Known about the structure:
CATH architecture: 3-Layer(aba) Sandwich
Helix content: 25-40%
Low-confidence stretches: none
Order of helices and strands: HEEEEHEHHH
Strand content: 15-25%
Largest sheet: 5 strands, mixed
Number of strands: 5
CATH topology: Adenoviral Proteinase, Chain
Radius of gyration: 15 Å
Structural class: alpha/beta
Distance between the termini: 15 Å
Number of domains: 1
Strand order of the largest sheet: 1-2-3-4-5
Amino acid sequence: MSLTNHDIERISRKLDLPIIGVFSKDELVLEKPQIGTYHINLSDSGKAGSHWTMFKIFSDKDREGASDKTKTSKKETNALYFDSFGIDMPIEVKNFLKPFRPITWSNRHIQNVNSEVCGWYNLLLDYALEHRQVGKTYLEDYEKFLESWSDSTTENTKLLKERFKKIN
């Protein structure tokens, strides 16, 4: 089931996720980077949506249980990018995230190209990063999330549904 921007916002609030907003890729030039999650539609604004991706700006100092809760400096802030098709980020996202280089991203293709569940993968990743912290860093948990999927995109659709039922 495909998600709208309103669905992503509503579900993010329900799951207590640190959403900054839902944007078309061309709208990022109007925004200032801040810590939190950005859901990005790869279509330009005013056009029908095509595919949801996400990126997260974060500091490991902000994680639950972090010992050092002093103010986070820009130097301690990082970013990660996720596309369930495993495609590199568009130039608009690269430009927006320029201050956070290098940007971690994955070329792992976990979503079936015939499905419209990209928004659900993004929400599940954000949930895992915020509420299922098992590693010491966001990047460790990002890697664990990516490793948890099958090489079969059809199997991953089933796994996605099962995993989302557990948190919803």
